[in-house]
């Protein structure tokens, strides 16, 4: 089994904190882009880099803002996938959607196409946050779109929230968390605000127009989130992801398990047979290269060192952790590694048994530091 990720590089407007690849001036070429995505689907099915991938378990429309696409455009893409691959009858098909794109009509259309999971970019239930973020929706629209999706019969619903926001108190953050719990949301992705360079947020922070949350504030909000979600029946199966029983995101879980996936669209990444490849992150360059059927991606063959680092970076984010036998098979375990693991365990950041190493609740606050300290 494998997954397909489609990067839809269109947005109505630019969020102040976002450094993903997208364009807000796309109307003149949106049909050409959809055609190019379909053409890439045809090309990768015949590509030796993806040899052996015939069955698809998950399809994920990400971006950008995939909910910008109309029903015919989404159908065109799904038809292209079905024409080239055997899509499992129970495949998880996710669409990332902004609240302002969600209506009873749009949800019904998505369901008719086979989309059975929505990931909604709520981000915050505080109006002032949505304004400086330059989000296109209001708090009321955010709440209403959840009710609309539920009333239309979407039973696998995920929402994104951001903690560590400027001036956001712990009580306000917990109010956001309580709202999604009370709404009966099956899955929650909660991310700490990161100030990325070349974003409007970075400019606002450098101009001291916004004060980012301190490390202590971020830690307090994260730990309160973890405790509250667990108390309300959500499993923290990955550092940023919480799910009711049976509602883990299959597509994203497969990333962390290093199950093959095909990335379609500008800036999209793929993984198969110890190879990673990534597409050019420029819309017009991508469309031109696809038309010429050459030069739209770069590729890397992963050696033992790169595989070791990836296993740690992805595996330590999950509740299952990293299987020790996978690390030992790389013939890369050193005395220094053993000492480092022992040190992290002594500090209460890491647990270890005969089969795996995994982070503790406190260790998850230090995930990137712990993984990078073990990199080769």
- Any idea how many domains? 2
Question: How many strands in all?
Answer: 15
Report the mean per-residue pLDDT as an integer: 92
The best one-word shape is globular
CATH superfamily of the largest domain: Aldolase class I
Count helical runs.
14
CATH class of the largest domain: Alpha Beta
Structure, explained:
- The protein is an alpha/beta fold.
- It has 2 domains: 2-256, Alpha-Beta Barrel (TIM Barrel); 304-374, Arc Repressor Mutant, subunit A.
- It contains 14 helices and 15 strands.
- A hairpin with a 2-residue loop joins β10 and β11.
- α1 (30-45) packs parallel to α2 (71-84) and α1 (30-45) packs across α10.
- The longest helix is centred in the middle third of the chain and has 17 residues, at 215-231.
- The chain is globular.
- The model has no long low-confidence stretch (mean pLDDT 92).
């Amino acid at each position: 089994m494998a997954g397909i990720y489609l990067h839809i590089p269109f947005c109505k407007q630019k969020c102040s904190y976002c450094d993903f690849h997208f364009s807000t001036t796309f109307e003149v070429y949106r049909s050409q882009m959809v055609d190019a995505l379909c053409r890439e689907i045809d090309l990768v099915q015949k590509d030796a880099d993806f040899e052996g991938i015939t069955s698809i378990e998950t399809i994920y429309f990400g971006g950008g803002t995939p909910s910008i696409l109309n029903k015919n455009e989404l159908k065109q893409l799904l038809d292209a996938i079905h024409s080239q691959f055997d899509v499992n009858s129970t495949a998880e098909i996710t669409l990332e959607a902004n609240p302002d794109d969600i209506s009873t009509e749009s949800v019904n259309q998505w369901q008719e196409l086979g989309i059975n999971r929505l990931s909604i970019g709520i981000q915050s239930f505080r109006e002032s946050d949505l304004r400086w973020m330059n989000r296109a929706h209001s708090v009321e629209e955010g709440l209403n779109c959840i009710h609309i999706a539920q009333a239309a019969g979407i039973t696998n619903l995920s929402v994104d929230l951001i903690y560590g926001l400027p001036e956001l108190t712990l009580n306000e953050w917990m109010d956001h968390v309580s709202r999604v719990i009370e709404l009966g949301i099956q899955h929650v992705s909660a991310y700490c605000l990161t100030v990325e360079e070349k974003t409007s947020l970075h400019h606002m922070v450098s101009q001291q127009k916004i004060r980012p949350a301190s490390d202590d504030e971020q830690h307090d909000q994260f730990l309160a989130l973890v405790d509250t979600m667990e108390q309300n029946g959500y499993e923290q199966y990955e550092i940023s992801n919480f799910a009711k029983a049976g509602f883990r995101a299959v597509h994203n879980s497969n990333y962390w398990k290093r199950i093959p996936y095909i990335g379609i669209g500008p800036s999209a990444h793929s993984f198969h047979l110890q190879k990673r490849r990534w597409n050019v992150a420029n819309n017009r360059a991508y469309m031109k290269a696809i038309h010429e059927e050459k030069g739209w991606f770069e590729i890397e063959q992963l050696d033992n060192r790169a595989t070791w680092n990836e296993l740690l970076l992805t595996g330590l984010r999950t509740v299952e952790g990293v299987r020790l036998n996978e690390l030992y098979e790389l013939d890369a375990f050193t005395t220094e590694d053993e000492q480092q693991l022992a040190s992290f365990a002594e500090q209460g950041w890491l647990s270890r048994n005969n089969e795996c190493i995994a982070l503790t609740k406190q260790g998850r606050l230090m995930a990137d530091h712990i993984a990078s300290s073990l990199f080769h």
